[in-house]
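note to self: dont lose this again. the chain is below, predicted strucutre after it. 321 aa total, dont forget to put it in the shared folder this time
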Amino acid sequence: MARVAIWVSCVLLLAATCQGLKYGYYNRRCPPAEYIIKDVVGRAIRKNPGIGAGLIRMAFHDCFVQGCDASVLLDPTPANPRPEKLGPPNFPSLRGFEVIDAAKEKLETICPGTVSCADIVQFAGRDASFFLSGYKVNYPLPAGRFDGRVSLENETTDLPPPTFNLTELIGNFAAKGLDIDDLVVLSGAHTVGISHCSSFVPDGRLNSSTSDMDPALATVLRGQCPANPNFTNDPTVVQDIVTPRRLDNQYFKNVLRRRVLFTSDAALMTSRQTARKVAENAFVRGRWEKKFARAMVKMSLIEVKTAANGEIRRKSCRVVN
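---
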């Protein structure tokens, strides 16, 4: 296992280098950059742990649309009234924008025009994982990403919806260069955060005659969610009823017990290969945390922008230069 881990690390290092990224990228360009971001994230999570889950989700949502380029942060403008953040997977559920704003403001004061918003998003996701896991998930992250200039609502269809079956999930992740193990491991982020009822009720997850959800959980959720959630009546519920504020491997135990919200979560039990991976992450101590760290680094390398097709946004992450 140690040799495999070293080989995977070398592959990730090579992939990062090929895209112009580098570990310790800001050591000379802006030495306090990573510390500043971690401090801002830590303060935000101490006030509201749910923001941490939002930052992890933001890192994922950014990378799956236009690559890891902070396109998810761009606000609507007259020229582009419907950016990514207004797409159904992001609005109104995606959280943490104000944390990115706070980090960018501090960084611009100390190192103007140096730290990209794309890097801030990925560092914030890393640091949120660190705090929510009780410091168990901690990993170095290559940096040097540039910020994208394109952000379109209709491209949020690249994000896998909670209604996907396993075949659809595998295809979606493969299109981004991620494999089945990455799919299972990254799904574990559903151990923290909340979900709107509209993400699983219309899919029949609470229907006792067709759903495989644990009946006790379904009963609880039917008491929390309307039968037909809509934009004006769409409550939120925790995704992990056991440890809702801790990033841990409880999600995989929930999958095994069929105590998960989404069709895409339950889908992990529909093949021997993924079910075995679920069990390993549930019961082998420390395995998931290490795999999650590697998968987050791998995800952060998706379709990275360079100086040729990107920029370093100045002053605000919400607008292009």
